[in-house]
């Protein structure tokens, strides 16, 4: 399985530099952004790009013809993405530090949490949908998401005091811990779904 | 004689196509040619063999093992050449070696570079710049570099020019010399098989019509020509398909001995090529269904 993770690095040699460049650009030109957003972008870039790369070719036929099981192929993607995420956030942290862009550990944690949630929803699409439809699906997903968000926001503002009251009543530890548990559970659930779909896939 | 691959009653239904109740044996140490018209089920059968598809019914054994419990062991010992490129187009062979080699326990770097040299393949050029023949050779080099005992090739000669095709057949003949390998390859260019195949498996409309040694095929099948007046209902049954014309008939039989006994020298017989067999067998289905 380690070989399957390593191959995503070999294939993305060029993209590695691109992702560093993106972080540097953000660090220089996007001073008004929340740092957690930069961490999110940095962490999601390589894993998502790995999927998009594989969508174009018949590469799944190759992996399945080599001595790997389908279970390993999916596991490598999920474990690999988590590893890339940790690395990318580390690298992004160093770059932001060099460019004097202030951030806290909390920003890193939020970035990582959002990575898990975003990955949990997008990764299975690459197994469920036929290649070529995924771009459309993510677009529709984004529209639905913003629609849902726009209907949630009024609800949130209406009940803001109650929610803030509830959140402040929790200790920050509980808050972060439950956030982490929810994000990671979603990721593991997503892994299970992808695994289930990929087992039945026809090439 | 051992079978390296065995299909027992394998059925697979796909959206607009199915293969039904396939029984297939591939003999160890020989070249088996897999023929059939486009859409007859060759690729589906090969995908089942590689576990890219899972059978709805029946058993598939490779090296006497099944995929459910020995997937990795089977694939360690298998090599594959597909009819289209399955590698990342932008990668060069050096990088492809870096991602493929670690997958195999038996990978032999020296062997790999020897074949690359022998096949005159560039190491630093992207696969997308390769011609069809070069892509095929690259796949073959990889298959040969991990000591694959069974090599499966899907239409390796399709789209190759005649010179290159000969070259490939020579290479295949050479790798078969030591008798350790088994080769299974599909093609609809039947003349390739007449040169190198020991066994022929013929698939038509999702069914295996026969698996026979090349000599058996040549002994049993023949084209028979004669006047219409020798044909009656019983004789007709000895033919797979009869083509009638105003001069007489031409028919394919798989019962040369029977025809000789009944008709003797009232008809003329000539050896049937694989192409004849494919052509007449196709007509037969249309005629009798």
List the helices and strands and how they pair.
The complex is a heterodimer of chains A (203) and B (289).
Chain A: H1 2-11, H2 13-29, H3 35-56, H4 59-65, H5 70-98, H6 105-128, H7 134-158, H8 160-169, H9 172-199
Chain B: E1 3-13, E2 18-27, E3 31-35, H1 42-49, E4 57-62, E5 65-66, H2 67-76, E6 78-81, H3 93-100, H4 109-118, H5 132-144, E7 150-154, H6 162-176, E8 182-187, H7 190-196, E9 199-204, E10 207-213, H8 214-220, E11 222-226, H9 233-236, E12 239-245, E13 248-253, H10 256-263, E14 268-271, H11 274-288
Q: Tell me the number of helical segments of chain A per DSSP (H or I, 4 or more residues long).
A: 9
**Total number of helices of chain B:** 11
The CATH homologous superfamily of the largest domain in chain B corresponds to: P-loop containing nucleotide triphosphate hydrolases
Instruction: Determine the most extensive contact between two protein chains.
Output: A-B, 19 and 29 residues
Number of domains of chain A: 1
E-strand count of chain B: 14
Averaged pLDDT of chain B: 88
Radius of gyration of chain A: 19 Å
CATH architecture descriptor text of the largest domain in chain B: 3-Layer(aba) Sandwich
CATH T-level topology of the largest domain in chain B:
Rossmann fold
State the secondary-structure class of chain B. Answer: alpha/beta
What are the secondary-structure elements of chain B, in order, as H or E?
Answer: EEEHEEHEHHHEHEHEEHEHEEHEH
Please state roughly what percent of the residues of chain A sit in beta strands, choosing from under 5%, 5-15%, 15-25%, 25-35%, 35-45% or over 45%.
Answer: under 5%
Overall SS class of chain A? mainly alpha
H and E string of chain A: HHHHHHHHH
Low-confidence parts of chain A: none
CATH uppermost class of the largest domain in chain B: Alpha Beta
Radius of gyration of chain B: 21 Å
